[in-house]
Hints:
four-stranded parallel sheet, 51% helix, 239 residues, 2 domains, globular
Amino acid sequence: MKVDLFIPCFIDQLRPETAFNTIKVLEKAGCHVNYNVEQTCCGQAAFNAGYWNEAREVGVKFLTEADMNRYTVSPGASCVGMIRNSYDFLFQNSSHHNRFRQLQKKIFELSEFLVDVLHVTDLGSMLTAKATYHDSCSALRECHIKSQPRQLLEHVQGLQLVEMKDCETCCGFGGAFAVKAEPISVAMAEQKVEHALATGAEYLISTDYSCLLHLDSYIKNKGIALKTLHIADVLAMGI
């Protein structure tokens, strides 16, 4: 199967190795991965900040470049959630709305694509460690992703997955929220990290690097012995 890869801005700029690991995982699952080097952004940052015209302009580029004959896969549930849900608002009563409806059915976050489309749960990944999983708001509430990443992580050889308290509670990132309401955002990160530490986990895993970036900043600032990993990085280990 040939699939198109969409890399979120955060990963492109700050964690490119996660993008390469996403390719590695998809190829292990039997996919031929196509990457458009001209791709930019889904428009989420502008949309969340209230710059809807600018978000629409970026969205048009995304829709124009998308190949409706192939699946588009992304290692970022927040981007997938933006495209599946917010594009409906941006392109209502426009000539792009039908194309959005087509794309809505063809775009998937990495873990849900592997489990729900390819029906793959075991990639032969290996990580000898104890870990806990953070449900990002976008994955859980916008994309309804809950069991898929857990199914994949449960098949990682050597990995002990332990649920933390309030795993579905927001980590405090929320894009502009972390800037506009910094004290609240930091307090939410503190609570999330404390819950992760209470499990005895060495790793905190999620589908969204934006959440992990926020949590990792808090962890490093406090000198806490907890590592963050994107699920693509975990699944790429040992394959």
